[in-house]
Amino acid sequence: MRFELEVDIDRPPEVVFAVLTDIGRLPEWQASAVSAEAEGPVREGTRIRETRRLLGREYRVVHEVTAFDPPHRFDVQSVEGPLPLTVRHTLEPSGGGTHLEVVGEAKPKGMLRLAAGGIAKTAEGEFRRDFERLKELLESR
Predict the structure, then answer these.
(1) pLDDT tens for residues 65-92?
(2) 19-39: buried (b, 16+ CB within 10 Å) or exposed (e) per residue?
(3) What is the model's pTM?
(4) Element (H, E) at 135
């Protein structure tokens, strides 16, 4: 499963990057996030522990930051959880705001692989709504 999106946000890259990497704020704009915390300052190698609600169940997920280049790049890869996932965020200045590109790739395993088609469609919709919420959150300030 691969998801790609681009969104223009009327805030400078530094502001977008700061909110994007403020791990405790993930539940504000990501629908499946119940809680999230970083194990120390966010930088390459930092582990992020999350509780997510997916398909009516709560799951614990651990991601590792694989790229951290403020305010241009922020990537994470799951190291524990039900769905191997990589998410790449690229931020570029655009006028007075930010052009954000996000690519998510997941590799369902086990029982999730059997339902991959339906999960992919649901997950892609949620993925897009999450980044629209991020845009609204940032532009409402």
Answers:
(1) 999 999 999 999 999 987 788 999 999 9
(2) bbbebebbeebbebbeebebe
(3) 0.89
(4) helix 116-139
